[in-house]
Amino acid sequence: MPLSRIDGARRIGAESLAFLLAADCPGCGLPGTLLCPDCARALHARPVRRVTPGGVPVRAAHEFDGVVARCIRRVKEDGQTLLVRPLGAALRAAIPGECDDALLVPVPTSRAAFRRRGYRVPELLLRAAGRTPHRMLVSTGSHTDQRGLGRDARARNVRGSMRVRHPLLALPRGADVVIVDDVVTTGATIDEAAQVLRRAGYRVVGALALAATPRRSEHGVNG
Ligand SMILES: [Zn+2]
After folding, report:
1. What's the pTM?
2. Does residue 17 have a pLDDT over 90?
3. How far is the CA of 74 from the centre of ligand 1 (A)?
4. What is the Cα–Cα distance from 148 to 150, expressed in whole angstroms?
5. Ligand 1 centre from 143 Cα, in Å?
């Protein structure tokens, strides 16, 4: 191997090592690892069910708590996309058989969030779960961040926040769809997505999420 290539490989190796050494487990803070074995086990799906105020049944791989919540925050706020792989595996384990024939439609990521992160979290999770995201909903750019808002304010905030893509880009009317989000808090975002999809002629059979906030809480990282 030419010397320059060996140098290059060494440099990349050293950079990866430095990256790993600078990392710490998002679950427990253990240094020198992107995710320790104990916290990786904590990510195995423990599905929970919710029903949105609008009556859409939601299945989530986890409660939004502990290790899972900290991993999701790393992905959403710190750009740690390597964690998408174990999180996607948890999502895959929570996808019920009824979803096999349904189209999986992620809730849209606002333009501001996409600019900030450079990726759409629900789509990344679906791809990591081995499923195809059907981007049929787009953000209208009219709503602001849901964080810190209560139940009623969230519902008002998401109204009119999304629309179905141009019919030429969307899928056949009448298809069964399952709405997908990373975190379900009050269910306001899911309800808005369901309404928009139904108006466009789709049959919403349910929703899927990586995590749902425990029932006592109304304040999470999403809608
Ligand atoms: Zn850990």
Report:
1. 0.84
2. no
3. 13
4. 7
5. 35
